[in-house]
Design brief:
The chain contains 4 helices and 6 strands; from the N terminus they run ββαββαααββ. It is globular and about 45 Å long. It has 2 domains: about 70 residues, Alpha-Beta Plaits (2-Layer Sandwich); about 40 residues, no CATH class. Strand 3 and strand 4 form a beta hairpin. It is α+β, with helices and mostly antiparallel strands and about 110 residues long. About 20% of the residues lie in helices and about 15% in strands.
Length: about 110
């Protein structure tokens, strides 16, 4: 392992392309199956929540371009944020992926059924 994958202060898992050796160990280690090998660049990549946009205070592209307006992004620790309000109003429907692993993920889903 090269140490190319790390969690930043916001809880986003980042793969540093400059540090990645292309060994693919993080693909095997990722419990979510989120990493993939980019053959052209010969590195492992994954969604980084559009870190370049979020750092500047913008929203990730998947949020701003979702035609169904089904994606939200924000600070769940700020009770005034949209995401915190949605999570609070729907506590009985909120879940995370792979809760059994206790990885403390920062992506939440709402069940379509109450």
């Amino acid at each position: 392992m090269t140490g190319a994958a790390f969690i930043n202060d916001d809880g986003i898992v980042i793969i540093d392309a400059d540090q990645c050796s292309g060994c693919k160990e993080c693909i095997e280690a990722c419990p979510y199956g989120a990493c993939y090998y980019n053959k052209e660049k010969q590195i492992v990549q994954k969604c980084d929540m559009c870190l370049h946009l979020v750092t500047d205070g913008d929203m990730p592209n998947c949020v701003t371009n979702c035609p169904g307006l089904a994606r939200f992004f924000g600070d769940i620790n700020n009770p005034e944020s949209t995401v915190a309000k949605i999570l609070k109003e729907n506590e009985d429907r909120v879940f995370t992926d792979r809760e059994d692993l206790n990885t403390k993920p920062n992506v939440y889903y709402l069940s379509v059924r109450k």
